[in-house]
Structure formats: structure tokens, C-alpha cells
Amino acid sequence: MARAPRQADIAAVAGVSQTTVSLVLSGNTEGTRLSEPTRQRVLAAAEQLGYVPDPVATRLASARNHLLGVYTFASAFPIELDDFYYPILAGIEAEATALGQDLVLFTGTGGLDARTDAKTAIRRTRVADGCVFFGRHVPEEPIDWLLHGDFPLVYVGRRDELGGRIPFVGVDYVAASAAVVERLLELGHREIRYLRSVEDALSSTDREKGVLAAIRRARLPVRRVVVRAQSADVDAALLTKWRDEGVTAVVVEETDLGVLSRAALAAAEEAGLRLPEDLSLAVLGQPKGRPDVSGFEVPRRELGRRAVRLLVDQITGARRTDQQLLDCPQVPGATIGAV
């Protein structure tokens, strides 16, 4: 097996000293008199020989290696096109490519029994210049350790843990959810139920805040609006019971798994309820394969792109704000209508 080319080999081909090669490849030519033809000759020789710099040595020399980490808290890397996280990863890749950065995927496991939020697994991200994290929860101790060390990081999704110090690019679920309910109110609905996950994730809480804010602005009672449920609890009997009680609209949270919205749509079909003639149904998100469902769209690809952009801004010192919220385009759909 042939050995990898070294800087000495480049120096021999280009007819320059090894010091000159080192200066050109590191980009550290400030304060030196180096002609452009010489620099181009060194780069051409490096390309001809297929030279690839050692990332560890490069990091030690320049404190940057143009590697961005991506840390997922999922047990497996999402590869299906309709996976909730796939567009986020596609956006991350697209923006990293546009900015000339390479990506390193951290699987979050240090062995078969290791947890994805293990302290040692998260600390390994420091081999990159910075890291994008995404998941529904924050392992506070290791993330706090990274922040105290001034390690550049960005979360995908709004975070308020650790005293609000976590940089993030998230979605304004409060405003988007309120807009969906306000549309229902404009159509005459006064008896509304909101189905939300039993999990206390921040994205779930934000959606509920938006729903209740819109109800309160309409001076309607909120006591019975929110119903926490698992997908197994949502069936034809539940929707029929609500319909008999005078409920005219159901709003459903769309989580990353999408199980609650699927259950609600299936329950309406099983109960023989026509949407929106018999019951209006809106989803706070966009169910897979159902562009006809009213609600809003989560800009997941843009989330990935903005997260990378913010991370690179942190690394280069060009950042303007560490926390950003994106708007959600409303989806008119065909599943809500007038009472």
C-alpha cells in the first residue's frame, strides 16, 4: 500500500521549501512575502499528489478544521424520506456544503449500552469546530459543560433550559398554533378540543400556549379545551362523544412521530365523520402524506440550514443573535370549514 503524500513531497514537486508548503496549506501567509504564482504552484502540486491534511494537526495549528458535528439523540440515523428529521438533516448538509464545511455525525453511543445523552459521548463533539444538536430534550450537565468551555453549539428547536443560555434555531409554535385556532374562530367554532401529547416537551407546551392564547382572546372558557392523550386513547368513540356534546372542531398536535394526528384522522374515518362537513379537524404541523389537512407547515429544511449558518457565525465570530425563531407557513387544507 502506497504511503500518503507528505508536505515534503509537495515541496519537491513544487520546487519550494517545506516551510513554504506549510504556510500555503495552512493559509497562514500573513506577514510573509509569498507570490501568487508560488502559492498556486504549491496548491497544484498538492492536488496532483492527492494530499489530504491531517485534521488533528490542522486543528492544533489553526484551532479550526472546518468540521461541524451533528449530534442526534435518536437511536438510529433517519434515512427515510418522510422521517420527521430527514429534511432537517438535508438542510444541514446543504448549508454546510454551501459554506465549505464538512460534517461529522456523532451517534451518541460509546458502546452497546451507552445512552445517547451520556456525558462522555457529548464531550466527544469537541473534535469538531462546533456542533448542531437536535432532540426533544436537553441533557443539561454535558451541554452546560460545553457552554462553559465556550464550545460553539446550536440546538435545532427552541430551548429555555440552563437559564436560556442555549443557542438555538427554533419555530414560533405559539404564533403558528394561535393562527390556526383564530381561523377556526373566524369560521364560527366555539366548542373546540385540543389533543396534545402527554409528554412535556417544549414544542408541545408552546403549541398549547398558542391554542389557549387564541381561545382567551376570543373570551371563551379554556377549562375543557386541552385534552392530553396517547394515540391509543383517540378512537371513533371519543370523537363521536365530543360531537354529541357539541364540539365542532378538533385541533391535534403533530409530534415528530406523528402518531396522534394519524390516530385522530383514522378515528374520524372510522366514526364516519366527514371533514369538514361533520367536524373540522386541524393539525399543528403537517401529517405525512396528507397535504389536504389544514394546519401549518414546519420549515424543517430551513431549520437545518439556519442552524448551520448560526453555528458557523459563532465559530467565526460573526454572529448577530444566538437565538432565532422561524415562522410557519399556514396550510389552508380542506379539513376545516364553517360550523
UniProtKB/TrEMBL annotation:
Where's the HTH lacI-type domain? 5-62
Q: Which domain of life is it from?
A: Bacteria
Record's keyword terms, sorted: DNA-binding, Repressor, Transcription, Transcription regulation
Q: Which residues form a coiled coil?
A: none
Q: SMART domains, alphabetically?
A: HTH_LACI
InterPro entries referenced in this protein's UniProt entry, alphabetically: HTH_LacI (IPR000843), LacI/GalR-like_sensor (IPR046335), Lambda_DNA-bd_dom_sf (IPR010982), Peripla_BP_I (IPR028082)
What does the record give under GO molecular function?
DNA-binding transcription factor activity; transcription cis-regulatory region binding
SUPFAM superfamilies in the record:
lambda repressor-like DNA-binding domains, Periplasmic binding protein-like I
- Pfam families referenced in this protein's UniProt entry, alphabetically: LacI, Peripla_BP_3
Q: What is this protein called?
A: LacI family transcriptional regulator
Q: Which organism is it from?
A: Kribbella amoyensis
